[in-house]
Amino acid sequence: MRIVAAGVPAAITAAIVYAIIPVWRNGVAGGRLGALVLYSLLPFMAVLLIRAGGFDALTKRSRRPLLGLVLVTALATAWYPPAGLAGLLVAMSFLISAIFVGGFRASVRALMAAIVSVLAAALLLIPWTFNFAGIGKTDKSFLGFSHQGEIDLLDVLRFKTGPAGAGIASWGILLAALLALLVARGPRLAWATRAWFLAVVGFSVAWFPSILGMKMTTVIPEAGLILAALGIATAVGVSIDSLVGDYRDLGNRLSRPVARVAVLTIVILGVSLGSLGFLADSVSGRWGAPDKSWADTLAFTKDSPPSGQFRILWVGDPEVLPFEPFLSGDDFGWTMTRNGPGDFRQYLRAPETPTDRVVTRAINAAVSSDTARLGHLLAPSGIRYVALPSINGPGGTAGKPQPALTAALANQLDLARLRTENGLILYENQSWFPAAAIIPEAYSSEVPLDAKAPLRSAVGSDVEQAQPLDDERPVPAGTVFLSEAFDSQWQAQANGETLDHEKAFSEFNGWVKKSRTSVAISHKGQTQRYLLIAAEAFLWLLAIGWWFRSRDKRAHSELNQPTLRPERSKRFAASPTDDDLEGFWGES
């Protein structure tokens, strides 16, 4: 913030405002880690864009800001893919504001730096980048997009996308930011204008689906509001800096003490009013997050006697589901966890596969009353439990009611409801069999290896005799089944012999074993995976090493640079954000 508002009071105020704006608290309440990562890294992205564009007259232009921007963009994109576009939006807001306040060349340089950073970040994130490019049309939720309903404009302006932001507290911050356009002069007015254009861009991103009056798949509203939060915080900082540095200009029409005290009081009251919401949310220390997670409630599922690998299907409002869901309809989605309620390792889910689409079709069939045997349809996916949460955790935020989904699950003949805490409906699949299993030869017909329709072949199957696989324990002859999307890289070996690989239930993996032996299942594509990871690590080390090398060069050049004359230093300090002035770069 010191680049935009040079004074220490202004920088501190801007940081405080950025911290008390409720957008990040709603991210905590909703469990949106991607939004929190973007919130943490966006100020660094903006500062690096300003330096790369040459807005800062006191900073010598070099490649180092661009390298830093690439690294920060890649880090943000890895956690939340749409974050890679944040730098572009910041630079575009600068370019639009240049129509009114100048700085066109610096804005263009910043935009070019943002484009380069996105492309270079895509290179650093290989092989993930290939997944992003290949599934963007079919699995938008994997890229961080979700269904967003209508949001009232007043809620957008108050940053209210969750429990935080209610009341009039946020209006105080907006008032303090608006004063920047009234009290700032010269370069400070230019930065106040840029800050407000950034805020308008952020508000527009959050409100865009509501402007169209339709539900659509787009970025989470917090993503846009984080941009707006940075713009508003910067504008408040400019207000303070203008009052501290330029209050004499305010006194041309009013007495200096009156002008200074009156406007400064308004700004302080506005920030103080905004702080009330932060203080109220901080009393419990949870900021709207649940008292505990559903993982505590469902811990019994992973502590039960070992009967084979299983999965839990979470279905309901995407806002309250754990981890990143698949979207299944306009109002609900689903996600799966393995061998229990899940942990942080499942935060970044894999792209959608054909078996995932089978689960989506099965859920839709139940909701449309086309089946009363959903458990049979889900059994090949290894789903033992079906969980329907109405809140994101005990004591947490409530999601949208799901009456159709609730009724559909209650009507299934092969799902047995279990007792659990309020806010979570839990069923056990009576047709479940292990995700990695051996079906004895006498019952192998229950696992069709030549089926063309996955749901039709599953609804008539009854695999009660399935036994869990153990790499060391011999199992009887029969059909080996693996509940993963069919891939020719999967292989099963018995006594050192590779079994013939076939499709089971049309989309899963099956092998026929003709004698009693142990079976080992593995994936042959691990070597390629490790090579790609090694290549990615090499690119990161290369980029970080280049960044440190440029820092050393810069430090060496600054040591050998002659000290500015005092009068010249004053000229620079008088306009720290004066960009694109004729003669600036050529001053000697």
Automatic annotation (TrEMBL):
The keyword Transmembrane applies. The chain crosses the membrane at residues 29-50, 62-80, 86-104, 111-130, 164-183, 195-212, 224-245, 257-280. Keywords: Membrane, Transmembrane, Transmembrane helix. Residues 558-588 are annotated as: Disordered. The keyword Isomerase does not apply. This is Unannotated protein. The lineage of its organism: unclassified sequences, metagenomes, ecological metagenomes.
